[in-house]
């Protein structure tokens, strides 16, 4: 049965490709009941050294993002570059990239799209779908991954944020006046929450349940796509109304403990 599903996943992604891929995977393989891509990253599991977020009991590393950066940079990164050439104003450019992902990616659970409880797309796979069809389909991690890569292509610093049962992107945009909440990442202020899964969400909108909690975040850069247990501790992200910071109610290990209690890393809209 899983082999049939594997075929459906590959066909679904291939069918949405408008031109030669830049940095997606074209060789998904089944290993011990999981689906792996060309980089040996497991697309159906968030945990472990080979999981797409490499979540462990103490840290995480969104390795799937690195499939679309550096020498692997493709259409998603180039989309960011196009926005950079079109919009010189930093705040406007960040908003336009956010609106692009918010408006072009239709929130779709993995079970509906791939008939799997979990399947993460890399940024180029989703961008290719949008390039051909004008619209793509994905859940919260798919949108966050695409946003983070596009922001890098457009010249911003970006990060992946992780909380129990949810993930989003952060963009470094100090002085952005429209965000009611501004994050500090390891004490550095100016990080703005990018949550594109709601059709009316503006850049900087933050679900209220995340406004006064400690979040784990990983600033992305060009890194090796390696299936190893990460050793780098995640950044501590805190937020408060008006750009203030909150207290730290619980450490990252508590967040991870909660994640481990979730049998399937399902997403909320």
Could you describe the 3D structure shown?
The chain is of the alpha+beta class. It has one domain. Helix content is 30%, strand content 18%. The protein has seven helices and ten strands. The protein has helices spanning 2-15, 75-86, 90-104, 110-113, 123-133, 140-153, 252-261; strands at residues 29-31, 34-36, 105-107, 136-138, 158-163, 166-172, 181-185, 188-194, 215-219, 235-241. The strands form three sheets. A six-stranded antiparallel β-barrel has the order 5-6-8-7-10-9. A two-stranded antiparallel ribbon has the order 1-2. Strands 3-4 form a two-stranded parallel sheet. A hairpin with a 2-residue loop joins strand 5 and strand 6 (166-172). The protein is globular and about 50 Å long. It starts with a helix and ends in an 8-residue tail after the last helix. Mean pLDDT is 83; it is low at 14-23 and 241-269.
């Amino acid at each position: 049965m899983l082999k049939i599903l594997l075929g459906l996943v590959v066909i679904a992604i291939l069918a949405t490709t408008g031109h030669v891929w830049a940095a997606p995977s074209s060789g998904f393989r089944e290993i011990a009941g999981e689906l792996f891509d060309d980089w040996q990253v497991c697309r159906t599991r968030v945990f472990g050294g080979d999981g797409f977020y490499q979540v462990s009991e103490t840290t995480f590393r969104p390795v799937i993002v690195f499939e679309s950066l550096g020498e692997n940079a493709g259409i998603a990164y180039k989309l960011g570059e196009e926005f950079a050439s079109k919009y010189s104003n930093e705040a406007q450019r960040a908003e336009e990239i956010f609106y692009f992902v918010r408006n072009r990616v239709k929130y779709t659970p993995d079970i509906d799209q791939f008939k799997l409880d979990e399947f993460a797309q890399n940024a180029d796979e989703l961008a290719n779908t949008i390039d051909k069809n004008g619209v793509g389909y994905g859940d919260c991690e798919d949108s966050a991954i695409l946003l983070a890569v596009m922001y890098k292509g457009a010249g911003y610093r970006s990060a992946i944020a992780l909380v129990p049962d949810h993930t989003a992107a952060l963009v470094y945009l100090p002085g952005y006046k429209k965000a009611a909440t501004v994050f500090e990442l390891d004490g550095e202020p100016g990080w703005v929450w990018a949550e594109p899964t709601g059709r009316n969400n503006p850049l900087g909108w933050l679900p209220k349940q995340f406004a006064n909690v400690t979040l784990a975040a990983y600033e992305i850069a060009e890194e090796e796509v390696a299936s190893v247990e990460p050793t780098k501790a995640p950044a501590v992200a805190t937020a408060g109304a008006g750009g203030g910071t909150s207290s730290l109610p619980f450490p990252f290990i508590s967040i991870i403990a909660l994640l481990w209690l979730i049998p399937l890393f399902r997403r909320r809209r």
